Amino acid sequence: MRPFTYLGVPIDSVGRSGGTEHAPAVFRSHSRADDPWLAADAGELGVRIRGDVRDAASGVIAINDVLAMTRAVRDAVERLRRDGRIPFVMGGCCSLVPGALAGAGRVDDSVGLVYLDGHLDLYDGETSPTGEAADMPIAVVLGRGPDQWVDVAGSTTDPDRVWLLGPRDLDDALGYGHPHPDDIAGLSFTDADAIRAAGAESVGRATADAAAGRYWVHLDVDVLDETAFPATDYLMPGGLQLAELGDLLRPLLSSPSLVGISVGCYNPDKDPDGTNGAALAAIFRDALAT
C-alpha cells in the first residue's frame, strides 16, 4: 500500500464557522481503520477563514486568513512529501489548492494539477461575483489571481500541466467576465457532458497518461450532480453520477505519478444521516484499492 497521510484543513471561504469546516473530522467517522488514507494521520491544521468584507486591494474576503491558510497548507504538504508521504488532504473548500500544489512543487518537479470540479474557478479579485477565495484557485495556480495570493503560494503552474474535469458553469461565468478556458493556451478542460460522451474511465485514463510525471488530484464534490450528492453548498444539475466519478478517479489515483489528493466542498451539516459521506468514502476506497 502506498504511504498516504490524512491531513485536515477545516476551512470555508464564505468566512463563517460551520459547514465545510466540519468535513475533515466527519470524514474520519465515515472511514475504516484500514482505509489507505488513514495509514497515517497528521491531524488538522489550525486554520480558519473569517470575515465578510472584500479586501480593497485583492478583492478577496478575509485575505489575511486566506494567505495564512495557504502558507500552512504549503508547508504541511512540503513536509509530508519530503518524508515520502502522499498527502490525502480533506479540506473545507478548494481555496486550499494553491498551497497544496505549491508545497508539492517544492519537492517534486513539474507537478501538474488534475482538478475535478463543477466550476472553472478562474475568477480573480475583480471578476469574482462573491469575493470568496473558492472562486479563484485555478487563477492563482496559473499566476493570474490576486498578486498577494500568487506571491504567498510561491509558484505557478504552466497551463499545459492543468486539466479541468467536469465544469458546467461556463456560460454563467462568462457573464461575470471570467476568462474562457480556450483563451488560455495549453489549458485543458473537459466538461461533464464531454466526460459522459467519452466515458468517465476513458477520460480518467487519458488524463493520467497526459499528466505523466507528477500530478496532484483535487476533487470538489460539486462535480457530482445535485441529486447524486446534495451535501454541498453549490448545487447544480448536469453533474456526474457517483459511479461515473468512481470510474473517473480510478485510473487517476492508481497511477504511480500521483503525489497527492485533496477534497473540498463536502458539507456534513447537509448530510445528517451520513449517506453522502459514506458514499464518498466508498468511492475512494474502491479507487485506491486498484
Shape: globular
Q: Order of SSEs, N→C?
A: EHEHEHEHHEHEHHEHEH
Largest sheet composition: 8 strands, parallel
Going across the major beta sheet, what is the strand order? 2-1-3-8-7-4-5-6
Continuous helix count = 10
In the predicted model, the low-confidence regions spanning at least 5 consecutive residues are none
Residues in helices, as a percent range: 25-40%
First-residue to last-residue Cα separation: 10 Å
Beta-strand content: 5-15%
Number of E-type strands: 8
- Radius of gyration using CA atoms only: 17 Å
What is the typical, i.e. mean, pLDDT? 97
Summing up helix and strand content along with how strands pair, one would put the structural category as: alpha/beta
Structure description:
The protein has 290 residues and is α/β, with parallel strands linked by helices. The protein is 34% helix and 15% strand. The chain has 10 helices and 8 strands. The protein has helices spanning 23-29, 63-82, 97-105, 137-141, 147-153, 170-175, 192-198, 200-210, 242-253, 275-289, and strands at residues 4-9, 41-44, 86-91, 111-116, 162-165, 188-190, 214-220, 258-264. An 8-stranded parallel β-sheet has the order 2-1-3-8-7-4-5-6. Helix 1 links the parallel strand 1 and strand 2 (41-44). It is globular. The mean pLDDT is 97.
